[in-house]
Each structure stands twice: as C-alpha cells, then as structure tokens.
Write a structure and sequence with these properties.
By secondary structure, the chain is an alpha+beta fold. The chain is built from twelve helices and five strands. Helix 1 crosses helix 7, helix 5 runs parallel beside helix 7 and helix 7 packs antiparallel against helix 8.
C-alpha cells in the first residue's frame, strides 16, 4: 500500500488546522493606493456596524445579552483577521458557524444571522484563492461539516453548490496569480541574462580593440628593435644586444597578450571611450610603419571619404593596421602595398606584401597565427561585407575586404 498520498493528505490537514498562515503577497487594495490609506478606518467602522447589526438581530431572536455579545464578536473577528491572516480568519469562521447557531425564525434559510452567513462567504472566497490546492481541499471539506449538519435540507444543495463554485474560482485565481509570479520571475531572469550578454559582447569588442592596437604597436617595436643594427651604422655591441633584448621582450609581451586575449574572447566585453581612428589617419599609421623600418606604399583614392560612415572607416583602419602588423611579424622587411578605394557604396581595402625570401630572416619572427585574421573577418562581416586572406600565387600574402555602406550626407 502506497502511504505517500496518505502522508501528504495528513500533512495538508495539519497545515490547514495548525500550520502557519497563508502568505499574503500584497494587500487587497495594493492596486488602489489612495483607497488603501482609508481601508483600516473604513474596515473598523464596517466591523463595528456589523457588530451592532448582529447584536440587534440576536437580541430580537431572544438570546441573552452576554451570549449575544459573544456571538456578535465571533461574527466580526474573522473579518478583522482576513486582510493579513486569511487562514486564521477561516478557522475563526468555522468555529463561529459551529457555535453561533440560533433559534432562528422559520422563514430564515439557515441557523445563522445574515452578517455571519455573508461574512463566512467572504472569508471562504478569500481563503480558497490564497492557499495551495491540498489545503484548499481540506478547507472545503471542513467547511461542509456545519453546512451538512446545521443547514436545512431544502437549502443544503444551494449552499454546497455555492461553496463548490467558490472553490473552483478561487483555485483558478490562485493558479493565475502563480503564473503571473512565475512570468515576472522569468522576465527578470531574461533581463539579467540580456544585461550579462551585453557585458560579454562589450568584452569581446574590447578584446578585439586590445589586440588590434597593442599587437600593432608591439610588433612595430619588435621590428624596429630587430632592424636597428642593420639600419644604423656603427652600433656598438652592447647597444645591439640591448636592441635584441628589447625585441625579445616585445615578442614575449605579444605572446602573453594573445594568451590573455583568448580568455577575453571566451567570456566576451566594455564600451570604448577613446576617440576612434578613421580613414584620415591611414597616412599617419603608414608613416609610423615606415619609421619602424617597414617599406610601405599607400595607394588611396578617397574622394568620398568624408561620406564614409564612421564604423566603416574604423573597420578599414583596423584591417590595414592588422595587415601591416601581420606583414611585420611574418615577412619582416618585405615590401608592403596598401590599397584603399571608395565609391558611392563600397570601400575596398587590400594589404599585400611581397615574399619574404628576398630579405634576411630575423630571429624571433613568428610563424604562428594569432587573432588578427579573426578580428578582421569579424569586422568585415559585421558590416555585411566580405573578407579574404591567403597567400598569393607568386609568393607573398594578401588580405582584402569589401565593406558596403550608404554614404552619409548624400544619396547613393
């Protein structure tokens, strides 16, 4: 025999009779704050009025004054406890229904005064909408006891039907309230998840910017330090060794930065606050690369550069920057040609370097790939463009991007 349902039913009965009261999520008049401030005084006046009405009815029915006062107090007490202690109010109501029976006139439908009958209906209606279903079943079952034992048989079916209807409607109200509460919790969880996703996306952008900026400048530092003994004459041996140490430190910093970048990309990032470069800064970047010893030629036709949107200009700048950094790392000393073309709807960027076979291999030149190509591809595809990268048939390497846009300040 499965005792689990029996144990659950007994637990629900204990909860109904002796357990803590049903939780009240918010006051009954929470939707109407202006009315809520007057609820307490109005309720007390209404309870006092019901007390006097009940006392008058009981006196007319011939009850002694002390008994009439006691029964009137038992009639009003559940209504006073109902707003904050609904389950306690129901317990007091059942006690009043069992105790407060009168020698009612023959034309009365039940053995109770009208205030007690109507107040009991109000209490049951509130309680069944606030308790769980197992407790609700016991509330209905226990409430039927005074109905079956004290109500006249002719009126018993109507009272039981009313009690059943209250139980069904109350259960629906409780289920609807729980559904709204679960929906609100899920909405809050979704909002927190969206905020977390936005933070992660910002981290990704910071990681990409970190790699684009730092890797470019660190690569130029390394290349400039490595090529300094070849570009400068009469460099003492200690100075040449110092240049080698600087280059080695720069390479180590690049390696460590790539490891950290992998962590940042896996969690993904924060808003950019510094001014972002655009096409107008390409010349300064190419000049800096030349000063670092990288033979770069810039071929730019930017007749409509003032009409290129800022995100497209930033993407083009970063693609050229990463292309020069890759050329400096993997083909140090090889000639590099940067080509930028704009028309009314597309910005084309190409960075092509010659084969590195014509130059002396420098110590520490890296052959592995970092996150540069990934960043360039992400920038191009995020704007709806295309990106290609790969070796050329005759040697060398080329990265190319086509970035579509709608011209700002004019029609396409």
């Amino acid at each position: 025999m499965n005792r689990q349902p029996i144990a659950a039913a007994l637990h629900a009965l204990r909860q109904t009779l002796l357990g803590p009261d049903a939780r009240v999520d918010r006051p009954l008049l929470a939707r109407w704050p202006r009315l809520a401030r007057y609820a307490a005084p109005a309720g007390l006046l209404a309870a006092l009025g019901l007390f006097w009405i009940t006392l008058a009815v009981e006196s007319d029915w011939g009850l002694p004054t002390p008994v009439a006062v006691l029964f009137a107090a038992m009639t009003v007490a559940p209504l006073l406890a109902l707003p904050r202690r609904p389950l306690l109010a129901w317990r007091l109501t059942v006690l009043a229904l069992l105790v407060c029976t009168f020698n009612a006139p023959t034309d009365q439908p039940g053995p109770w005064t009208p205030p007690l009958a109507l107040g009991s209906i109000a209490v049951v209606a509130v309680v069944v909408a606030r308790v769980d279903r197992p407790v609700l079943a016991w509330v209905v079952a226990i409430t039927t006891v005074p109905v079956l034992t004290l109500v006249h048989p002719e009126n018993r079916a109507a009272v039981l039907a009313l009690l059943g209807a209250l139980a069904i409607v109350g259960d629906q109200i409780r289920g609807n309230r729980q559904s709204r509460r679960a929906l609100a919790a899920q909405t809050e969880l979704s909002e927190r998840e969206q905020e977390r996703r936005a933070v992660l996306e910002e981290r990704t952008r910071i990681a990409r910017e970190l790699h684009d900026v730092v890797a470019h400048h660190m690569s130029l530092i390394a290349v400039q330090a490595e090529t300094a003994p070849y570009r400068l004459t009469d460099v003492p041996a200690p100075a040449a060794a110092e240049f080698v140490a600087i280059a080695s430190s720069a390479r180590d910093a690049l390696t460590d930065m790539r490891r950290l970048l992998g962590v940042l990309r896996s969690e993904s990032s924060g808003p950019q606050t510094a001014p972002q470069p655009d096409l107008a800064d390409l010349g300064a970047m190419v000049d800096a690369a030349r000063r670092a010893g990288l033979p770069v030629t810039l071929d730019a036709e930017l007749a409509d550069d003032e009409r290129v949107p800022a995100p497209v200009g930033l993407a083009a700048y970063r693609i050229v920057q990463e292309g020069l950094a890759n050329a400096a790392r993997h083909a140090a000393g090889a000639a590099v040609r940067v080509t930028v073309r704009t028309d009314r709807s597309t910005l084309a960027v190409r960075v092509r370097n010659a084969p590195p076979d014509d130059v002396d291999a420098r110590p520490g030149t890296e052959a592995g790939a970092g996150h540069g190509l990934t960043g360039m591809r992400e920038r191009a595809t995020s704007l709806g463009g295309t990106f290609t990268a790969g070796p050329l048939p005759g040697g060398g390497y080329e990265v190319a991007a086509e970035l579509p846009y709608e011209a700002e300040g004019g029609n396409r």
